[in-house]
Amino acid sequence: MSSSRVNLEKYRIPLAEIIQATKHFSSETLVGDGGFTMVYRGQLSNHWENQQVAIKQLNVEGSQGNNKEFHNEVKLVSSFNHPNIILFVGYCDDANEKIIVCKYATNRSLDYHLNDPDRRSRLTWEQRLKICLGAARGVNYLHSGLGKHCRVIHTDFKSENVLLDENMEAKIGDFGLSRFCPRNQQDTHVRTRPCGTRCYIDPVNNERGRLSKECDIYSFGVVMFEVSSGMMAYKLRPLKDTNELFLIDIVRSYYDDHGLVNGLDRLKDPTIKDQIDMRYFHKFNEIAHECINMDRKKRPTMDKIIKAIEEALDFQMSGISEGINSVKYYDDFWERLLPQDYQEIIARAVPPLDFGSKKQLYFCLSDSHTFLDDGYLSFQLDMESGKKCYMLGTKQLSIEWQDNPNHWEWGHTLKSRFPQVCILKNVCWLAIHGKIASMMLSGYTTYVAYLVFRTTSNSQGLSVPAKTTVNFCGVKMETENVYLQRPKASEIWQENDRFPHRRKDGWMEIKLENLLITMKEMLVRLRWLLTSLNI
């Protein structure tokens, strides 16, 4: 066995672990279907640090699923070490399965945000520049950060493969088509048929079938135009009286008809028009246009691209340009980021919110928890998704025997955001009921209901299976084998058991159910019920 093979053994994940994380590769955990690959979201077990991961299952009949291609990809991704490359967690090649596991990108991908008008309007110009900068640094690492004698050409760089973590930091992913290439070799013959995704592929590579780092630079330019125009590269659009064209065709047409500045500036995304300084927007488009030059020798280096984006970002963050139409001075922009019922939320806030502008209000609602009504309902606006998130305090819940001092007592803990918590003393069985009006939530959004709690070191009787029930729109969703405390005897665990996980704030949480809120259901009240026997 070779040393490289031995080194990879520490990354091997048993198929049973994968099956448990994906719930037997169920559609519930499926987050992407790429034809030759299926991508699932899952959570690994304690042995793998309970990591949230993306699990890419390769079709063994496709080219990426053959043994040589698969192990080449595993060796490739396991060698990366850069903050803008998605973290490799492990792999599985048991029972004819070919699976690669990476850290899950909480905010999905760049195309996920650009392709939806609502999400795109929330993606500020500053955020877009930061994402482009991170992606550029990641590509630069592939081209020149792997040692003196080799580089990696991604070959399939596109907005779908620019993944975004919980902080909206760019992480390049999907290296199934990537190739090692000697750094002192300008081109390398890979295959007669070009690889990659149409609309992002370098046309020169299309013609010659020869691969070089400039292929990635061409694709990077396409993504830059997606970012500045708000249009996806692969969507056909009408232009004047001509046939429908792809984004890069439109870019070239505007440039030919109107020149660089006047032509390309007409393509700016209207949702960011009040946020940009046109001088640096020109420079951004100029460097993007150089990337798609049909003469590879005239394309910029990644270092030049990084420098141009850094300058635009530094200027954008300073906000001191003369006559800049900056976000900082436009209440209407920040109001678009607020929930539609924000005025009602303000009226219910306890104590009253102190803000002087819509921007200040936005950060009041998203940076910290806002208490509503009597102070036992917590509200927060998720900055990345725009979702409204609520937490019911114990005063908002109905708990069996909560007024009986023999079973429960009310107290305060500095570790809770609420002024009072309900502390369990001794009960023979436990039942907790809560409800929230779905009209308070964001429409056309999938929510997850959680129970949040703390346990003491001497708590007993919680490591037995419970049943949770969520009633929504007349539909009852029940889940068996839910534990408030993980049993110590692992041999009694079952495949579908659901256990609590520790949050960043130290509290435990357990998932109850997924809930899809639609406009039709906005006036229907939502209830969830947790019951468990305490033996």
Automatic annotation (TrEMBL):
Sequence ranges assigned to domain Protein kinase in this UniProt record: 25-313
Reaction(s) catalysed (UniProt annotation): L-seryl-[protein] + ATP = O-phospho-L-seryl-[protein] + ADP + H(+); L-threonyl-[protein] + ATP = O-phospho-L-threonyl-[protein] + ADP + H(+)
Q: Which InterPro entries match?
A: ANXUR1/2-like, Kinase-like_dom_sf, PP2-like, Prot_kinase_dom, Ser-Thr/Tyr_kinase_cat_dom, Ser/Thr_kinase_AS
Q: Does the keyword Secreted apply?
A: no
Keywords in alphabetical order: ATP-binding, Kinase, Nucleotide-binding, Serine/threonine-protein kinase, Transferase
GO molecular-function terms, A-Z: ATP binding; protein kinase activity; protein serine/threonine kinase activity; transmembrane receptor protein tyrosine kinase activity
- Gene Ontology CC terms: plasma membrane
EC numbers, comma separated: 2.7.11.1
Q: What is this protein called?
A: non-specific serine/threonine protein kinase
Q: What is the native source organism of this protein?
A: Lactuca sativa (Garden lettuce)
